[in-house]
Amino acid sequence: MLRCSGWLERNELVERTTALDSYRTKRYHILMHKHYDAIRQQYRPAHIRYLLIAESPPPSAETQSSRHFYRSEQVRTDDRLFVNTIKAIYPEAAEQTEKQIEPDKEKWLRRLQQDGWYMIEALEVSQRHKVTKEERQEKIREALPRLIERIASLADKDTRIVLIKSNVFDVAAEPLRDAGFTVLNTELVDYPGRFNQRDYREKLADLTASK
């Protein structure tokens, strides 16, 4: 009986510890998103002409990632989402390298702001690489009501939306159109990964060139 009691106590301790760790992790990601969103808000246009919606925000500033779109406190490498967006939108940057664009990131962010470009993410918590596509899509599906609310607070009838990455496009395109928003892409716009950066630039440029 004593052995059973001791086992139950240890099991309860493990469960409480696991729950506490889970709470701390969730709380950390919430605070991290709020910090990144505060940075993003500095570059919010007075009128948003184009709203780009990627999948999830970047990890912490110290973590290497291609998604640190609005962080300009240091010159980064492999800043693919930002660099390829600039190259797609501005013809004068089309032939520039990352090394040429990155030192002027603050200026480019201000230009995006001035020209009415803004980027948010469908999810409000950064996703690790180990999260599967099916899990990501389910998270986006669950987040749709909140996403629609967020877009409504940013967009007006003239705002054009571009959905980036298949997970976002496959799950969110039709619900956003049904909610009355103008989604430009009728097919996915590839995330600028290591092997499809050109596809991302070409699709984004084509979608927004005459709109």
Describe the structure.
By secondary structure, the protein is an alpha/beta fold. It has a single domain, classed as Uracil-DNA Glycosylase, subunit E, CATH 3.40.470. 53% of the residues lie in helices and 8% in strands. It is built from seven helices and four strands. It has a four-stranded parallel sheet with strand order 2-1-3-4. Helix 6 links the parallel strand 3 and strand 4. Helix 2 packs across helix 7 and helix 5 packs across helix 6. About 6% of the residues have low confidence.
Low-confidence stretches: 19-31
Radius of gyration: 20 Å
> What is the CATH architecture term?
3-Layer(aba) Sandwich
How much helical structure, as a percent, in the residues? 40-55%
Write down the overall geometry: globular
Provide a count of the helices.
Answer: 7
Alpha-beta content class? alpha/beta
The H/E string reads: HEHHHEHEHEH
- The total domain count is 1
Strand content: 5-15%
**Quaternary organisation:** single chain
What is this structure, in a nutshell?
The chain is an alpha/beta fold. Helices cover 53% and strands 8% of the residues. The protein has one domain: Uracil-DNA Glycosylase, subunit E, CATH 3.40.470.
